[in-house]
Amino acid sequence: MFAASLGTQFQGVDGSTDDKPICMPSQVSEAAFELFLSVCYNKPDVLKIPNNAVIQLLELSDMYLCKDAHVYAVHHLQRQRYSLELTQLISPALKYNIKDFFPHAFERLISARISDMSNEERHAVGSVVWNMMFNVKERLDVHRRIIACEAPLMVHAGTCKKQKRCEEDWKQLWWNGMGRLLLDGRNPQPYREAIERFEKLDIGEINLDCWRTVLYTVKAHSAFDHERKLIARTADNLAKCLIVKPSFEDFGSPVD
Q1: Rounded-to-integer distance, Cα 41 and Cα 158, Å
Q2: Of 24, 44, 85, 192, which is most buried, counting CB atoms within 10 Å of its CB?
Q3: Per residue in 156-184, is it b (16+ CB within 10 Å) or e — as a string?
Q4: Tens-digit pLDDT profile for residues 179-217
Q5: Beta-carbon count within 10 A of 212 CB
């Protein structure tokens, strides 16, 4: 590796002699550097690699423009994304231009409790992502209140003999059931859990055929999908604006 620099304009390569040691940044540990060498020359033992060392591996891949180390670190973090802290995903994604797990990280940020996040975590997320998170949360909150207050249209079956009573009971059930589940001040339910609880409620004098039809509409998630689509679309737009695919130049080519 060092012999390749002989006869070129690259002189005094780090690590080529005892007088030219490889200087590591303070944030990179010895374990991370060993992992870097292992990725470059061998297959590392995945079971023994701590996540913080893998994140530091990204720093080394950036320093030495090493594509193999970058790809390895990204794949490892992608596999471990559910066990990592939120900022361990967003911060590296923005710093090292990683789109792979950014949508997952942004979705977790949307569902996170703001009061539980420290100032350091907020700083790591960055002002652009942080401000967009509040924008999305506000829009989702408005949408949730609309769903809670407006019952889906009831289409009465031919067997329904008391349509007025059936309609009244349906609207009452929706507000007292779905409305309470979605807007509960102490424990608001996610849409999936709210639907599961809602369909177990006493339906009163709602015609059974009408109930089956309208419940099918509710469980189709046509209104509830707005949240998932908005988060995914926003994450994708943020990634396009903030993340640029890294370029790894080939230093193995001849130097003029």
Answers
A1: 73
A2: 44
A3: bbeebeeeeebbebbeebbeebbbbbbbe
A4: 999 999 888 888 889 999 999 999 999 999 999 999 998
A5: 11
The DSSP code for 105 is H
Q: In the 8-state DSSP scheme, what is residue 152?
A: P
* 3-state SS assignment for residue 237: helix
Tell me the three state secondary structure of residue 238. Answer: helix
For the whole prediction, is pTM greater than 0.70? yes
Token output for 57:
């591996």
Residue 223's Cβ-count burial label (10 Å; 0-12, 13-18, 19+) is: middle
Residue tagged 């090292």 (tokens): 96
Q: Which residues of the chain have a pLDDT value below 70? A: 1-22, 46-47, 247-256
The label of the residue with tokens 């420290």 reads: 118
Q: Report CA torsion sign: 132, 133, 137, 143.
A: positive
Q: Tokens standing for 4?
A: 């390749």
Q: How far apart are CA 108 and CA 97, in angstroms?
A: 19
Kindly state the helix (H) or strand (E) to which residue 235 belongs, with its residue range: helix 225-242
Maximum separation of any 2 CA atoms in the chain, in Å: 95
Q: What pLDDT is recorded for position 254? A: 39
Of all helices (H) and strands (E), which one includes residue 175?
A: none
d(CA 119, CA 125) in angstroms, rounded, equals 10
Both tokens assigned to 55 = 């994140």
Query: Do 215 and 231 meet the contact criterion of CB atoms below 8 Å apart?
Result: no
Nearest to 93 by CA among 253, 249, 246, 214: 246
State residue 243 phi and psi, 5-degree precision: -115, 125
Provide the CA 165 distance to its chain's centre, in angstroms: 45
Distance from C-alpha of 140 to C-alpha of 145, rounded to nearest angstrom = 9
